[in-house]
Each structure stands twice: as C-alpha cells, then as structure tokens.
Amino acid sequence: MSLLPRLNFSALTYNAAQWPLPGKALLGCALAGLVFVVGDLAYLGPSRQRLQHVQAQEVALQQQIAHKAPQAASLEKRTRQLELMQAEADALLHTLPGKSEMPGLLEDISRLALANGLLVESVTPLDAQPRLFFYEQPVQVGVTGGYHDLAMFLSSLGGLSRIATVHDVALRRDGKLLRLDLLAKTYWHAQAGGRGGQVAQGQPFVYDSSGLRDPFQLLAVQVDHLPGRPAGAPDLTRPRGILERLAVDQFEMVGTLSRGLQAFALLRASSKVHRLAIGDYLGPDHGRVTAIHERSIELVELFPDGQGAWRERPRTLVLNVNS
C-alpha cells in the first residue's frame, strides 16, 4: 500500500481555479519557467552548440585572412616577377644550340690547354644525359701542369662563348707537376626550337697570379709571378725545344757557369742538368731567358689574357741553396 498520495490533476486544476490571484500568478510563472527550461534543453541547446562552432570557425578564418592579406596584396607583383622569370628562362632555352656541340667543346679545351702550357693527359666524351628541357653533354678532362697555369686554364674555360660549366674538380700532385681532373659540361636543346643564339655573358673572371704563391711549392724555391704587360703574339711556327716541354716549376737552378764573357745558367730537371744562355727558351709559355745572375735567372713568358691578346709576364727562378 503506497504511502504517497496520488496526484489528481483534475482536483489540482479545480483547486487552482479557486486560488487567489497571487497564487495563480505564482503557478503561472512556475509553469512558464518549466516550459522555458524544457524548450531550452530540447531545442536551443543544439543550436547554441552549432553557434559556438560557427563562431570558432569565424575566428580561425579571420586569422587566415589577416595572415594572407599581405600575400594577396603582393600577388600582382609576384605574378609580374613570375612572368619575367619565365620569359628569361624561355630566352635562355632558345639560346641553346639545336644539336650537340661536342666537337667544338673538345677543340676549345685543347686550344686553352695548349695556350696555357698544359699537357693534355685525357679527354673522354661521355654519354649525353637527357633532362626535362635540354640535353647535358659531359666530357672528362685530365691535364697536367703548374699551379698557376692550371688556374689560368680554369679561368679561360669560364670565358668561352658557348655555355660550358665545370664540375667535380680534383687537384693532386703528379711528380713535380700537378694533375687536374674535371668534368666539363655543355648543353643543347631537347626540342627543335633551340636556335643556338649568342649567350649574353657578364664580365668573365680572369685569374691573375700577381702576388700569389704556388701552395704546392716550398717558399725557398718559389717562382715569382709579377704583373703582366701587354705584348705581341709569339711565333707559333717556331720549333719548340726539349726544355719547353716541361713546366718552369720543374726546374731548379743549381748554379752558373762562365766561359769568357758569356754566362750560363745550370738548371736541373728530372735528375739532368741543362745549360742555358741568354735568349734560350724554357717552359711551355714561350719563356725566354733575359738575364743570368749568380743566384737567379730572369725569364719573360707570354700567355693569353683570355680576350684574344697576349701579355708578358716576368719570372725569376732563384738558386736552390740546398742543391
């Protein structure tokens, strides 16, 4: 048997109708509050959650707008820069030759090596490598010579009229000389549109050995490299002597010899002693003996300046006091 009385809505409604006005008002407020709470939980709660989610999205979008506004402001400028870069890239691609220029590159390498007094050990063309818009044509080069002559050779490669780049440079000692191995690359267009026009080049780098020493030689036997002067071209038809096949850095001055009024310089190379007089030639750079002193000899060499002319370079070979 239940101890709680049953709720009789009919009796409650009848009794409420008999309540005084303040009681009715209080009951109405209670019912209205109950309806508001139920309606808020049933209908407004999900909407309030969606509103909070939308407000969070609004804050995130405002932050993105603030971050991207400067980029949008410079979009037109960036578009113009991109168009300009694309036009420059297209122009460079059209300057590439329409076919391989390997024969011309080999001729340029041999000419520059001989002009700088180097001995060409090997020139090995490699297979062309296809790229996205062009072909890459490599050639492996090995040359031998003095330090400054090798530097002049590399400087001359950078001044070629054709597009050529140098990679994988390796320098090592080879007896009294230096061996330089490098990979030179030229390029040609992968499509028929390549016209092979002239490439606009900036000011080429020209190696100047003035005041620089050969880091592979001892200070006591250094050969001085003084500033060069403009000079006429050498006689390329003149027969070259046996002492012109070796670089000057391979020779050591071991003494002098006099016969009457004529003086001779004694130079040693490869365990052999050679006698030179004023006017004799020495080294691959058309070096000519101009003066013989008790403790040194003076030479004048001719070398290309990379611009089609020749320059005169005085050099001094000092006596090796340990000989």
From TrEMBL:
Stored InterPro entries: PilO, PilP, Transl_elong_EF1B/ribsomal_bS6
Positions of transmembrane segments: none
Coiled coil: none
UniProt protein name: Pilus assembly protein PilP
The organism of origin for this protein: Pseudomonas azadiae
Phylogenetic classification of the source organism: Bacteria, Pseudomonadati, Pseudomonadota, Gammaproteobacteria, Pseudomonadales
